What we know:
The complex is a heterotrimer. Chain A is α/β, with parallel strands linked by helices. Chain A contains eight helices and ten strands. In chain A, the strands form two sheets. A six-stranded mixed β-sheet of chain A has the order 6-7-8-3-9-10, sandwiched between helices. Chain A is globular and about 55 Å long. The termini of chain A are far apart. Chain B is an all-alpha fold. Chain B contains eight helices and no strands. In chain B, 51% of the residues are buried. Chain C has one domain. Chain C is globular and about 65 Å long. The N and C termini of chain C lie far apart (46 Å). In chain C, 51% of the residues are buried. The interface between A and C is medium-sized, with 32 and 21 residues.
Amino acid sequence: MTAVRIADVHKRYGSRRVLDGISLELPRGTKLGLIGPAAAGKSVLCKLICGLEQPDRGELEVFGESVVGKREADLGPLRKRIGMLFQNYALFDFLTVEQNVAFPLEHGFGTQSRDRAGGELTTEAIAERVAARLKAVGLAGSERKLTGELSGGMKKRVGIARATVADAELVIYDEPSAGLDPVTTQKIYDLLAADQQRTGATVLAVSSDVTALATFVDEIAFLYDHRIVYRGPAATIADSPNSLVRQFVRGELEGPLDQAGPGMSSDRSVT
Amino acid sequence: MISAIGAGALRIAQEVGGIVLLAGQVLRALIPPRMDTRELWKNLYKMGNRSVPIVVLTAFFSGALMMLQAGPFVKKFGATGLAGWGAGYAVLREIGPILIALMFSGRVGANNTAELSTMTVTEQLDGLRALAIDPVRFLVVPRVIAMVVMLVALTAIGDLVALVGATLIGRAMLDIELSSMYYSITENLKPYDFLHGIYKSIAFGVAIAMSSCYFGITVRGGAVGVGRAVNAAVVAAAVSIMLLDFFLTYLTG
Amino acid sequence: MRKQIEGIGEATLRLCREGLELWRVYVSTIAGLVRGLTKRKDKIARRGRAKGELVRQFHAIGNKSIIFIAVTLGFIGMVMTYQACLQLGRVTGDYSQVGSQFLRLIISDFGPTLCGLMLATRVGAGIAAEIGSMKVTEQIDALRMSGVLPIDYLIVPRFIACLVMMLVLAVLGSVVMYFAGAATAHYSFGVNPNTFFDLSFIRPRHLILFLLKCAAYGAAIPIVAGFCGLRARGSSEGVGWATTAAVIGSSFAVIVLDFVLSAGALWLTGGDL
């Protein structure tokens, strides 16, 4: 069964084209990585999947239900099953770490854990889950801290905890390791892998760090020039038959990517 | 509770002190007047142009409002000849300068603080300093001058529009003849009434400009800080306007 | 020439569209309010609005503005009385009406309107800054992802708090203004306080106008400010823009509403106010 089905989606902001006919399918339980030059539309695609933005044209289905043209209130049940880590964490700066992680459970629609019959969670049950999640991401002592007191890595981890606290069936990570040092990056990806192992969720991960990403996901898709131009196994991404992908992944300066694509500067004199 | 008041008072004192220091720097930069004239013209254009519509509308409504308040009273006593004078007096001396200053503070002052704080937060001010350019001389001084000049000009224009507004409403809702209003205004209002308002607008302009620039360049903390800076600037400007109005009214009668 | 007309047409269309959006926000807020009030079941998991958020808003909007309002309205009261007495001194020399007319003006117009203008700058900027920075840091999106409607969670508490606080602060401000005026009249012009404190001119219609204006301003400010906050885009510039627009928008709304309500009252009472 497909978790996510995207068919011929187009999106423009005013006169600026962002996505031009994107088609993608994510089978349940798989992990897909999404890479591409800056400002190529990767975050926009993530938001489209969650229904946070609406496409101009095309179809988007999550777990068989369409997210196009739905009102906010109707998207609620579907969003229960999706967890999202935002690129800039989007933590609530007026709440503590604990309250941030508990938020989806308290304010949304309860949770959807597989061994429960649905309905509301008690305050104790929520507190237990939050504590368990914070321990899993390595922030056990920081419940009462405000987001302003946290480092970048810690904020990312709170974001991950919040995205996964409701045992979502589809988890989207937008740049889980951006701006972090190599050791922390590895720890984060280990954490994401352990989570996925435990819950069997479907994962979509956007990242600019292709090497680390490749150790986590099964397949990688390359978003370039407003389309998906390649999709293949993560393990062999550096030797992909597609020359665009090869150049991008290896970080080479010479190659077909030189035709100034979105966000790419063709001015080689500026290093 | 007492410590909270004390802390609040200290903070206000600190900010007032900071603004005074900045004012000192601005004054020093004006003697001799050496500044980036391109920045000056750019700001004059931006601040004047941007505010004319809203100021004109505000002035029109304030004039009309004053008429609505003063008119019935005057009419009841049969002194329609004094209607123009009654409304006009209040408009030229008080309502005009104050409301226009408040609107200006909201439109231009807040915008200016937003711009300056964005520049500070994105470290552009540090960048200027690294190039041995004094941000105060380069950025703040032209803006202060532009804001004062523009507020005075806008107050002058606004006063006229307000009188027009009062006249029209007098005709429309109170059946006071246009000619009657015209004579009433020109006979009874003296040039000094107009100037009184203009002196005030100079003071208001300085207050708005200093507060706006100060909070703009002392901002801290990213997007949230920008919002707070604009908030603080607008509030400080409003309070200063009220206080200055009080003192100036008594001093210049 | 054609370009000018196109420009005007486009601007008008855009204004209408924005006006419609604003109206939608207003309706959604009321809907959210009703939604919040009708959840009477004893749910264990809190829903839609954080416990204590309402109280926090009362404090943020009300408590923190008391001194601001008292000071500004007090000074204005003094100035107005001074100017009025000066003017009267030139013409009739009769100060007996000053107190009663001043009170009438305060209740039917200046009390609520000046309070509204001050709050439009203070509270309007504050609300737009808060909500605006949440928007640009994607916290609004995060709220939506957690199944919360931003209007219910953010705007409704501020709406309620603003309505209540507007009334409270307007009353407070009016009282301060009145007494400040009395003091000025007495110390600068020798007006006997007994003459000044003359309530005989006040009629129910003045009080009704007072309440109507407080309600109108108290409703308009959070809606306009919240609307601007939710429209913020970009990063710091977006927040700056939202705050500026909120201050202007709510100040202007206060002035226009004042005009409409005053003109309406005048028309209804046939010129006798």
